[in-house]
Write a structure and sequence with these properties.
Shape: elongated
Number of domains: 2
Oligomer: single chain
Structural class: mainly alpha
Helix content: 55-70%
Number of strands: 0
Distance between the termini: 85 Å
Strand content: under 5%
CATH class of the largest domain: Mainly Alpha
Length: 193
Amino acid sequence: MAASACWRKERAGAGHNAGVSSTQAAFESLVVDVYAPLQRYLRRRTDATTAEDVLGDVLLVMWRRCDDIPPDAPLAWCYGVARGCLANAVRSSQRRLTLVRRIAREPVPVAADDDPALAEALSALPEGDREVLRLWAWEQLTPAEIAVALAVTPNAASIRLHRAKARLKRELLARKGSAHAGHPGGRQGEEAS
């Protein structure tokens, strides 16, 4: 096979740049020889998109391990690399699928859009309060984790969270009070305790 020089970086008497050029030329020649067989190999074992992704991984391994390619069986060696890269792709796909299933089982936090009164009350708060509340309620972070996310001390995060909850409660009660203002038995001016 003409590409056998890939794994033998021929630098005899040549400068460093000439060695790199001959290695690149040998690699390109090897790719011409093995590309179509590797593509067929992968397409027989997986879908076309995955086959192309895995083929890219194989070519990268070939380039990085050029010196390891045996001159007497480069295609067989490349099949072995393709087999390993395909196995990695399958494992990755299975991990993604497992993660998607786990996320699908997680309870969905109530979004402000699901409750118009909550959305209004949140929008009336300053952005800092909204962010602390979202980190606590939606992302389910503890005050110590909120401190890390906001780059503040845990004590400051706890205080901000406490104050934001109180402001949100006042906003919700104010909206509840105004919603009941026109109804018999409704109370106006209800304040947070």
